[in-house]
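seq as requested:
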Amino acid sequence: MDGPLGRSGISDVPLKKIFTVVLALLVAGCAGPQTQELLGSAVVATPVTEIAGNHSIFIATTRKKSDDPNKVFDGERSATLNYARVNVTVPGLHKTGQIERRSRGKSDDPSKYFMASEVVGYDTQPKFSSALNADIAARGGRVMVFVHGYNTGFDDAVYRVTQIVHDSGYPGTPVLFSWASGARTTDYVYDKESASVARDQLEVTLRMLAQSGARRIDIVAHSLGTWVTMETLRQLAITGDRDLGGKLGDVVLASPDIDVDVFKSQMRRYGKPDKPFILLLSDDDRALRLSGLIAGSRPRVGDYKDAADLASYGVTVVDLSKVKGSDSFNHTKFADNPALVKMIGQRLREDDGFASDRDVTDRINLLGQ
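struct tokens:
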């Protein structure tokens, strides 16, 4: 205990810590409060000149289908994978690093807001794979899998991956792997357990992509989604197929919400990577500070200060502590800093592994300085 015990046998300091965590959880998280509606009312007719982009996002999710058709998928867990494709438009007034969201009472105006214009569901994996493979072939065989973090509704995940693809200029096929987050700040434990449930299904998704026409599969994971990703890669390593038959490309782990010792254990099992594993860390990440406090004041990878210790496992560590973020918790810099998201896109467009990785990573580090 940090102080003298009172009659209850509980010291004052831990009580203050608990109160701080509870208070912070009321305002923290990977995504802000939204309606969670992906589809709305009739969309306002908009000239094509007022649309900055139209993106098809393929979805593999462990979420259940929502009873509300406008939400599409909710935060409940499904025992099997569900599949869909969502078309999302980006407004002409879009600013790099931002997601212009419609608020309650506003019209569904594509010239002002990110809007889902179409949702197509697939009732079987073969049907989904057929549509996915056709898109992969048309885009040159590149795939980017995005795995979101804690407190993220399905709508937030769809808009975030769209923003990343649009702002980074990624030319390949975007695939969102969406696990069953409760999308509430008080659901941290539920989200952790949902992430555990999702590991096998992310492995199924990656193997499905490896069996498609994809020649390269990049992974971008954020926050608690990095834990799901590392557990899945660990599983692949155990089976002897850690690089998906040579198709695994870059792995970008942004603000990893992983215990440092757990990460080291995962990397020891996986082994030193053949392709870049890029860790984006920041010691001013307040969301991870809270996560570490909940975990018994243990450091998380995303705000760990000993970069050389992590680099010894064969990963590339990028310190973003001096990079400006737009969220109050400094937890989404990888996507909301305009210069950084463009550099990540440049990194993902490269094909020659560590040689080009060093150049782009150096420029990202210079951005932080």
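Strands lie at 51-65, 73-91, 115-122, 142-147, 173-178, 216-222, 248-254, 277-281, 316-319.
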